[in-house]
Write a structure and sequence with these properties.
536 residues, 6-stranded parallel beta sheet, globular
Length: 536
Amino acid sequence: MFCYQCEQAANGGCSKIGVCGKQPEVAALQDLLVYALKGIAFWADKARANDKKDAEIDRFMIDGLFATVTNVDFDAAAIEKLIRQAAALKDKAAALAGPIAVDIPQAAQWQPAATQGELILQGVQHGVKDPALDADVHSTQQILIYGMKGYAAYAHHALVIGLEEDEIYAFTHRALAATLDTSLGLMDYVNLCMECGRINLVTMQLLDKANTDSYGHPVPTPVNLGTKAGKAILVSGHDLRMLEELLKQTEGKGINIYTHGEMLPAHGYPELKKYNHLAGNFGGAWQDQAKEFANFPGAIIFNTNCIQKPAESYKDRLFTWGLVEWPDVPHIDGWDFSAVIDKAQDCEGFNDAPGKEILVGFGHNAVMSVADKVIEAVKAGDIRHFFLVGGCDGAKTGRNYYTEFAEKVPEDCVILTLACGKYRFNKLDFGDIGGIPRLLDIGQCNDAYSAIQIAVALAGAFDCDVNELPLSMILSWYEQKAVAILLTLLHLGIKNIKLGPTLPAFITPNVLNFLVENFNIGPITTAEQDLEQILG
C-alpha cells in the first residue's frame, strides 16, 4: 500500500499499514474505488456534453469520494460493495454517453474481478503512485482529488438534509475525468485546483443553507462539559440531521444525548438546542477517543469520519451510521436508532456532575449581528488584530503549537476558531474586549464559510481587500476537507496563510514554491516567532 492523503502519514506515506488504522487490503480497495470513479466520470462528463445526466450517478460519485476520506470506512466488505456499484454505474454512464470518437482510457473500460481478493490485486495495480507522470503534475492531480474528496463530505451532508447543486456534480465529473487526460499539463491541473476551491465554496454555502434553513442560525450558547444523571448516548461526527433524528427518538425516554468532536457546534442551533436532553459535550477531539470513550457509560455512534480502531473497553456499545463503517461494529442503515437506544438503556449511565461551560454558536449571522460593535472596537484601537486559529486536530507531535499560539495572543486581539483544532484551547478562559468574547467558536470545519463571510463583511466595512484586514490565518490540517478549504482560500486570493504542523507530503518542492510565490503560504515556526512576524 501507499497512502499520503493525511497529515499523519508515516515517513512521507504509509506503506505497510495506515497510521489511521487502515489495513493494506482496505487501502487497495479504496484506490480501486477512486479508479472506478474516474471511469464513471469519463462517461458522465461525455453524457453531460449531450445534456444527459443521472441523479443516481451524480450522488454516487459524492458518496464514493467521501467513503475514501481518512477515518471514514475501514470495512473491506463495504468498500467492495461500493466498487461493484461503481462498475454498474460506469456502464450506465457509458450508455448515457453513447458512441464517442475519442480514445477511451482504461479506467473507463475497467471491469471488476469476481472475488474480493482479486479486487484487492486490481487495487494494487491502480494505487496512488504513478511513476509515469511528471512529479509536479502528479502532485497537482493529488491535490485536486483530495480537494474533491473534501467537498464531497460537505455535499453529502447537504444532500442528507435535502439540498444539492448540479454545478458540484458537473465539476466532479469534469475534474475526475481530467485526471485521465494525458494531454493536460501542470497549469491545467493548477487551474482545476483553483476551480475546486470555488466549488468547495459553493458546497459550503449549500451546506450552510441546508443547516440554517433546517435548524436556524446558530446563536451564542453555553455548553456544559459535565454530565447529567441518566442513561446516555454519545454522538460523534458532523451530520446534524442524524443528531436531530436521534434526539426525536430519545425524547422522553430518560436518555441524555452528548456531542463529541465536531458535533459540539450543534448546541448553537435553535432547533437542536430546544431538546432538553441535548445535555452537553463529552471529551475532546477525535484522536483522544480511545482513552475517553472507555469512560463513557452509554452507547456511542459515529455519523461521519474520525473513527479510530475501537478499544475492547467500549467496542460492544459502539455503532456506525451513514458511510462510516468498521469491521465487526454494528452499522445502522437508515433512520431507526432503536438498537442504539436499547444499548444505552442497558448501560449504567451517568451520575449528575456539572462541569465547566464553554461558548459556541458564533456563526456569521451571530457575529455580523454585532458587526457595528466589532468595527467600532477596531476603529477605537480596542481590537488590534483577529486571528483565525483552527482546523483539524491530530495526535502527531507539534500540535501543542496551537495551544501556545492561542495563549500568547495579546489581550487586545480576538481569536476565531473552527473545526476540532479548537479543542487545543477552547476550554481556556480568554475573557472579552468590551463585551466581545476574545474566543469566538464559529463551528465545524465546513463553517469556514462563516469565517469567509465574516472576513468579506469586515473588508467591506473598512473598504479594503481581505488581505489588508488585521486578520491572520493560522491553520492546522489533517485530512482532505482541510485541503478543500485551503483551495477555497487560495481561490479567493487570500495570502499569508500559515499551515501546520507539517506541510502535505503530496506537495512537491516546485508546487510549494508556486504557493509561496503566489500566495506567501508558509509553515508555522514557533508561536513567538509567528506572532512577532505578524504583529511586529
